[in-house]
Amino acid sequence: MRVPFMDLSRVESEIHDLLTAAIDGVVRKGGFILGPEVESFEREFASYCGTQYGIGVSSGTDALFLALRAVGVGEGDEVVTAANTFIATFNAISCCGATPVPVDVDPDYYCIDPDRLAKAVTSRTRAIMPVHLYGQAADMDGVMRLAKEVGLPVIEDAAQAHGATFEGRKCGSMGFAGCFSFYPAKNLGAFGDGGMVVTNEEGISEKIILARNYGQREKNRHEQIGYNMRLDEIQATVLRIKLERLDADNAARRLTAERYDERLESIPQVIPPACRTGGSAHVYHLYVIRCARRDSLRDYLSRKDIDSGTHYPTPPHLQPAYKGLGYQKGDFPVSERLAGEILSLPMFPGLRREEVDYVCDSIEEFYAAG
Ligand SMILES: *Cc1c(COP(=O)(O)O)cnc(C)c1O
Q: Distance between CA atoms of 273 and 260, rounded to whole angstroms?
């Protein structure tokens, strides 16, 4: 049996006709950049998140960048964020001319540790950027409490958390602004790049609407220097169709996670992901275990035709691009330890129970063989 890490075509084949008809509709109409599909999708996704405004942009990275710029982050500023994240979180901060200041994550949920946050805030800090990693919310009670105390805006990196909640509230809706990616492999994915900022702040929304489109509100009047960071009609029409299935897709991911949990619980060398209880919903963008002899296990699975991943093998502060920040191994021990132990198992809606069982059987075999 071959088990792919992710196979989008399985679920998309069910809605293939809907998707191609919608794309055909856009092609026939002939308007491709911004337009009615984007506007509808902005309304629909903002409403899904429980926010007033949604601004479609060109990627998740650009959503983060534009949201940071909109709250005034610029040259010489600092933005506090999680040490365990995808490089794009750091890149968006750097592209504003600001410095990412990592904070280690908590050892249970792998998200920014609010207890360590306060120490990272300086007089230069202009924003706090928690990351809802792997599809599960960061501790937003702790983050929002600290943010309020120090009077800083929170920009949520919700690029892996479409539909996830923290105590009943949707990820992306709790801070000043929430940023999403519609990269094809995300829980809500386009047929290319795309992103969105959601917010309840009209001022933030207005700034991003201008900034994403050459600083113009009306054609040929450029109120400020802007960017070309727009969402296009083909992506929006695809995303509108997929948004209708997002909750069902997330439920399918949760079912898969339950089966993994059940099967992996009895393997002492494996720590399955901890899931917040109460009113918080995990959407399992990734199913990430911690395990002994990670690299050997990964090779073993690969020989069994099972794809897996590591998210992420090197934390941003140890990447060559961030050598200039001057961090060393040992500075963020929880994140660094995770980097050596984590393994992402196949996870996508449409993954079959037999496949999950085959993955778990193989993990069992690996450890049984010693
Ligand atoms: C995917 C991702 C991004 C960037 O989104 P793009 O659309 O790829 O630019 C940012 N942060 C996190 C945590 C992500 O997973």
A: 10
CB proximity list for 56: less than 8 A, separation 6 or greater:
34, 38, 41, 42, 194, 195, 196, 230, 231, 236
Angstrom distance (rounded) from CA 335 to CA 83 = 6
140 CB-contact burial (10 Å; exposed 0-12 / middle 13-18 / buried 19+): buried
DSSP letter for each residue of 238-277: HHHHHHTTHHHHHHHHHHHHHHHHHHHTT-TTEEPPP---
The token pair at 31 is: 């308007």
161-163-166 Cα angle (round to 5): 80
Q: Which of 183, 286, 335 to mutate to test the pocket of ligand 1 (most atoms within 8 A of CB)?
A: 183
Convert the pLDDT of each residue in 200-214 to its tens digit. 999 999 999 999 999
At 250-307, the pLDDT tens digits run 999 999 999 999 999 999 999 999 999 989 999 999 999 999 999 999 999 999 999 9
pLDDT in tens, 112-150: 999 999 999 999 999 999 999 999 999 999 999 999 999
179 CA distance to ligand 1 middle (Å) = 9
Amino acid at 245: R
Strand-strand pairing, 270-271 and 195-199: unpaired
Ligand 1 probe mutation, 58, 61, 111, 239, most atoms within 8 A of CB: 61
Q: What does the mean pLDDT of the chain come to?
A: 97
**Residue 113 token pair:** 């540790």
